[in-house]
Amino acid sequence: MTLDEDLEEAAGAVVTDGTVHPGVRRARAWLSRVTEPGTVDFWRFVDDVGPVDAVRQLRSGRAPERIRSLAGARAAQDETLADLRRAERCDARLVIPEDDEWPALPLHALTVAVADEPDDHRRQSERTRAPVPPLALWVRGPARLDELADRSVAVVGSRASTAYGEHVAAELGHQLGERGWTVISGGAFGIDAAAHRGALAAGGPTIAVLACGVDRPYPAGHGALLHRIAEEGLLVSEWPPGAAPHRHRFLVRNRLIAGLTRGTVVVEAAARSGALATARRAKRLSRPVMVVPGPVTSALSVGCHELLREAELGAVLVDGAAHVLEEVGRLGADLADVPERPSGPRDGLSDLAGRVLDACPVRVGVSPERLASIAGCEVLDVLRVLPALELADLVQWTGTGWRLTPPPEEPPRAGR
């Protein structure tokens, strides 16, 4: 059946059992190739008339001139069947807004944000920065997209990462995976890969959002990692199978990483890192932005520190999964534990007892009168606190006076 025949049948079909007509899915597949994602006007056009009528208008030349110009020469092409067959060959599928697997709740933030874009396309955000919902998502993997996205956190950072950054990202991914949270990143070298591997090592779910087709391992050096993610998590892309990883597509997909998750953690980012763009998109979607600080001397942490300095961004410093879940978890329930302070024998002493203890010499014992003079108190006050200090093994009676209890002697080392 040709595309036009499929669309005509879908336009007249009445579905009452909740299933999606194949023509609707084919229309979404065509739309995923006809224009690059992220254009405000094109998304609004499809949202207004529906996917089937949008394709029919574009193919017949009845669409508004602005929309036809966005499609350009691609409007005359039809690779939908080939795209769907490529997806089937690599165990991928096309998830569309009409499916019950569609992550409608997290992606609704993009729908709300795009409503603020002006009608005049000359005043709209650039395509690489516009908060536009996806028209469809190509998904590879056995898990359901909506279920994995429901409890997810984005972990992003520099490709040229340091050993410190990769260690932190892997630990963070592992800790989140142990708690059943999905780690979402971009599958790139550096921080992305470390976060994915940490989640996989914990047996937790992870999603790689790609800037190319889900059948195309990119970077090529991550072929094994991406294959494992496809087996245990999900590979997700707005571009159809076979699509190449063009540079501008990485900037566009950042909004999807921010939009699918409850919050974004930046582990390591240089001054011009793409991770900063993801963090700012998360802020525009009213999602928490979290930052792992690095050494002030590291160029790869400059971006992280700048995010923390931007007061309007409201970025929060985190050092592990406990801090992250405090920001994105259940209100009042997923609270991070207060760091434990090392306790010492002086903890809990009164001001008077502390002064008397400070007055005690190290070697020779002195009288209570001498302690009272140094501590600046009455002799009776000294006599009142000395027994408690002795019970705490802080002071010692020498037979002629009081002194500090000497530290225990170290046992002799072997061989001496």
TrEMBL record:
Signal peptide: none annotated. Gene3D superfamilies: 3.40.50.450. One of its GO terms (biological process) is DNA-mediated transformation. Residues 129-328 form the Smf/DprA SLOG domain. InterPro entries: DprA, DrpA_SLOG. It comes from the Bacteria. NCBIfam families: dprA (TIGR00732). Belongs to the DprA/Smf family. This is DNA processing protein. The lineage of its organism: Bacteria, Bacillati, Actinomycetota, Actinomycetes, Geodermatophilales.
